[in-house]
Amino acid sequence: MNFGILTSGGDTPGMNTVIKSVYRRCIQNNHKLIGFSGGWKGLLDNNSIRISESVLDDIDLGGTILGSGRTNPLMVDNGIETIKQTLEKNSITAMIAIGGEDTLGVANELCKAGLPMIGVPKTIDNDLDGTDYTFGFNTAITIATEAMDRLHSTAKSHNRVIVVEIMGRHAGWMTLHSGIAAGAHMILIPEFSLSKAEIVNIIKKRYDNGNTWGIVAVSEGYSFSKTETNDMEKDEFGHVLLDKLDVAQSIADLLKNELGITTRAIKLGHVQRGGSPTAFDRVLCTQLGFSAYDLAINKEFGKMPALQGIHIVPIDLSQAVARLKTVDEQSWKVARKLMGLD
Ligand code: F6P
C-alpha cells in the first residue's frame, strides 16, 4: 500500500520521531510512505518528498523533515477536490496528518468528504481533547522550566521580579506545569484570571516578608480584557499572534508602578519549540507512529491514536476537535495553593 504523511501547524519536537516510526513499520512490511512538504500546501501542490532510510538511524532531532505550514485548505477554492486528486495521483490509501486542533479539524472535514484521513495529535499547547497529553508538551515545559530555573538566580541577585511569558495560546497548560515545576511565585493563565489587585498583592506579600525578588510565569494569552485581540492580525485559522500583546511587559509594568520595585519581562517565544524531544516525548511519538500505522493498515479512517493513562487508544477525530481542552479547576487549584490563595 501507499501511505501519505504530512506535518502541519507549529513545528513540535517529536514530529520526526512519528515520521520515523510510521516509516519503520512501512519498511518492515513492504509498504511505501510518501511525505508531503509544508503541511496541507504539500497536498494542494502535489509536492512530495522522498523519505530516506537514513531517517531510521538519525537521532531524534526537533523540527520536521517534511516542513510545516499554516495553510488552511478549507479556505482555498476547490481545496478538498485538489487534495482528493493529489491522493489519487499518488495512489494513497491512507493519509496521516500530524498536527494540532487546526490540522486535525481539517483532517476531520476531509474525512467527512470521503478521504482516507488519520490524525496524530501534536502541539506544545496540550489543548487537544481526548488525549491525556499531546506530544511536544513535555519537551516545551522542560525548556520553559529550565529557563525559569536560570532566571531564578539572576532575579535573586538583582532583587528583581522577572515576568516570563510562556506560549500556549488560550490554554494555560504550559504556564501551569512549567510554573509549578520551576516554583514560580505567581502563575497567571487565561482560564482563571486574577484581578490586578490580587496580582499586586501576591508580590507585595513576598516583599513584605523580606523576599525582594520573584519569578512570575504568565501565559501569552493572559488578558485583562477580551476585546484586546479583536483588531489584531490573524493567521488562516483565525488565530491572533498573541506575543504581540506583550502581556509579560504589562504585568512587569503593573508591578513596577504599583509597588515601586524593579522588574524585567522575558518572552521565551519559539525557543520553547526548538531542539530535540525529551525521552518522554520520544517514547510517546514512537507509540503514536506505530498506532497510526496500524490505523492506516486497518483502514480505520477519521481516527487518531490518543494517550489515555499509559496506553494508546484510537479515538474519533471529531471527538478530539469538538472542544479546546483548557485547564480545569482541579489542576488550577495546585497553582492557587502554591501562591497561598487557598
Ligand atoms: O500552537 C503552537 C504555538 O507555538 C502557540 O503556542 C503559539 O501561540 C503559536 O504556535 C505561535 O505561532 P507561530 O509559530 O506561527 O508564530
Rg value: 21 Å
Estimate percent helicity. 25-40%
- The CATH topology of the largest domain is given as Rossmann fold
Order of helices and strands: EHEHEHEHEHEHEHEHEHEEHH
CATH class category of the largest domain:
Alpha Beta
What does it look like?
The protein is of the alpha/beta class and 342 residues long. The protein has two domains: 2-135 and 277-320, Rossmann fold (3-Layer(aba) Sandwich), CATH 3.40.50; 138-274, Phosphofructokinase domain (Rossmann fold). The protein is built from eleven helices and eleven strands. It has helices spanning 15-28, 40-44, 79-89, 101-112, 137-157, 173-181, 196-208, 247-259, 279-297, 317-320, 329-338, and strands spanning 2-7, 32-36, 48-50, 92-99, 117-121, 160-166, 186-188, 214-219, 262-267, 303-308, 311-316. Strands 3-2-1-4-5 form a five-stranded mixed sheet, sandwiched between helices. The chain has a four-stranded parallel sheet with strand order 7-8-6-9, with helices on both faces. Helix 7 (196-208) links the parallel strand 7 and strand 8. The radius of gyration is 21 Å and the shape is elongated. The mean pLDDT is 96.
Brief write-up:
The protein is an alpha/beta fold. It has eleven helices and eleven strands.
Spell out the blueprint of helices and strands.
Blueprint lengths: L1 E6 L7 H14 L3 E5 L3 H5 L3 E3 L28 H11 L2 E8 L1 H12 L4 E5 L15 H21 L2 E7 L6 H9 L4 E3 L7 H13 L5 E6 L27 H13 L2 E6 L11 H19 L5 E6 L2 E6 H4 L8 H10 L4
Parallel strand pairs: 1-2, 1-4, 4-5, 6-8, 6-9, 7-8
Antiparallel strand pairs: 2-3, 10-11
Helix pairs in contact: 1-9, 5-6, 7-8
